[in-house]
Write a structure and sequence with these properties.
14% strand, Amidase, 17 helices, 43% helix, alpha/beta, Amidase signature (AS) enzymes, 462 residues, 11-stranded mixed sheet
Length: 462
């Protein structure tokens, strides 16, 4: 049988639909690969193998009976443990939720299953999904497949590591401060943060999210190939009545002026020379593809977006968050929340209300900028992937890490889609660039991302 990892998700699904490749064969091969490779990286932390085989056999039977298999027919996917999957614990990486068994699938997963996707495992995250590192007391530590000394990223670090290792074609992740884009960057794969409302998400197992996550947190795909992201987005998306933010917006939009803003140091960050070099390479690739790439002297503020993001996410109900982190006993969550504890005390109702006026002004400025420049090319991070657990080295280290992440933290507050594209892996250290587009124009990110991917190539672990 053809190795499923040699096929794109679209090619694989086409063969399963035609009957030339059986979903059960693809699933068995993927589960065998998980059994071989996952113990070394601990990316998949909840086993769904038996259910996956049942679902694959049922899909083969439907196709044999003449039914349509779906756009994701037989495609192996993984789901982050932050999301409801019927019959499994929605742990979010905590012992506190180890028995929180979902009774229904989250709507994005319903959509993917309806298109024939097969869930081959559930992936790790840090406790409460707070960190750019992926370890917790319940599921253990996830390692970077390229280099165990580096973080696989977070909070969707299990998704990034599984994708890089070929443990499924499409991984589900979530992103409120870079939690899709950073694991993709750290693991040498591709990751798409969609526009809020594009991919429906709702956990029946728990309470509704607080205001910050409602406004900024999204679900989206990670994959080795940009076209796999495109197919994953198509499969996840759609209006769902149980997600009040979901919207039935077309996946493609009208033609735009082919102008790109190259922003090497968003917010004035001190960017690593290798990242700057890869941004220049990406700019030249886009120029050769017909894009007009410019370095504008005036770029809307992104630092204020970071500040507002911190207040809307971490400062809201901060004391409850810190109490839960202490009850869990997770050092990473405690370190982060303690770092912002004094700041959170200064957020009263009037200050919190004023955040939304400031947010509206920033969004207005960025949307106006994106009329002139429909695509922005910028770093994912100002630094190469962090050392494993580097955020536990004290407040100074934590402050430096958050400074490096300015390019990704500010984007969620602005409500924009963004794509992390791997630009290469050198001596076991991945790197990448970020593309940002106007709301609902993931298609622009994906189109440009495919151009970059053809030049940069794919980079599986050695």
């Amino acid at each position: 049988m053809t190795d499923p990892n040699d096929l794109t998700a679209r090619e694989l699904a086409a063969r399963v639909r035609s009957g030339t490749l059986k979903a059960r064969e693809v699933t068995r091969a993927t589960l065998d690969r998980v059994a071989r490779l996952n113990p070394a990286i601990n990316a998949i932390v909840q086993d769904t193998g038996e259910e996956a085989m049942r679902d694959a056999e049922a899909l083969d039977a439907r196709i044999a009976a003449g039914e349509e298999g779906g756009a994701l027919a037989g495609v192996p996917v993984t789901v982050k443990v932050i999301a409801d999957q019927k019959g499994y614990a929605t742990t979010n990486g905590t012992t506190l939720a180890k028995d929180l068994i979902a009774t229904e699938d989250s709507p994005f997963l319903r959509n993917m299953r309806a298109q024939g996707a097969i869930v081959v495992g559930r992936t790790n995250c840090p406790a409460f999904s707070y960190r750019w590192f992926s370890s917790n007391k319940l599921h253990g530590t996830t390692s970077n497949p390229h280099n165990p000394g580096l973080t696989p990223g977070g909070s969707s670090g299990g998704a990034g590591a599984a994708t890089a290792a070929g443990l499924g074609h499409i991984a589900h992740g979530t992103d409120i401060a870079g939690s899709i884009r950073y694991p993709a960057y750290a693991c040498g794969v591709q990751g798409l943060r969609p526009t809020p409302g594009r991919v429906p998400a709702f956990n029946q197992s728990g309470p509704d999210r607080a205001i910050g996550p409602q406004l900024m947190a999204v679900a989206g795909p990670l994959a080795r190939r940009v076209d796999d992201l495109r197919l994953g987005l198509e499969g996840m998306s759609g209006y769902a009545p149980d997600d009040p933010w979901s919207a039935p917006v077309p996946l493609t939009g009208p033609a735009v002026a082919p102008r790109v803003a190259l922003v090497k140091r968003p917010g004035g960050i001190d960017t690593d020379p290798r990242i700057l070099e890869d941004l220049e390479r990406a700019a030249e690739v886009l120029r050769n593809a017909g894009w007009q790439v410019e370095e504008p002297t005036q770029v809307p503020d992104i630092r204020e977006a970071v500040e507002l993001q911190i207040d809307l996410w971490l400062s809201d109900a901060h004391s409850d968050k810190l109490a839960a982190a202490k009850l869990e006993g997770d050092p990473g969550a405690i370190a982060l929340l303690s770092f912002y504890e004094e700041r959170a005390r200064g957020i009263d109702l009037a200050t919190f209300s004023a955040l939304f006026s400031r947010r509206a002004r920033l969004i207005r400025a960025w949307r106006a900028f994106l009329v002139d420049y429909p695509l922005v090319l910028m770093p994912v991070s100002a630094e190469l992937p962090f050392a494993q657990d580097e955020d536990l080295r004290g407040p100074e280290a934590l402050a430096r890490l958050w400074e490096a992440q300015v390019p990704q933290i500010g984007i969620p507050l602005l409500g924009l889609p963004a794509l992390s594209v791997c630009s290469g892996v050198e001596a076991g250290v991945p790197c990448g660039v970020q593309l940002v587009a106007p709301p609902w124009r993931e298609d622009l990110c994906l189109d440009a991302g495919e151009v970059l991917e053809r030049s940069f190539g794919l980079h599986p672990p050695g």
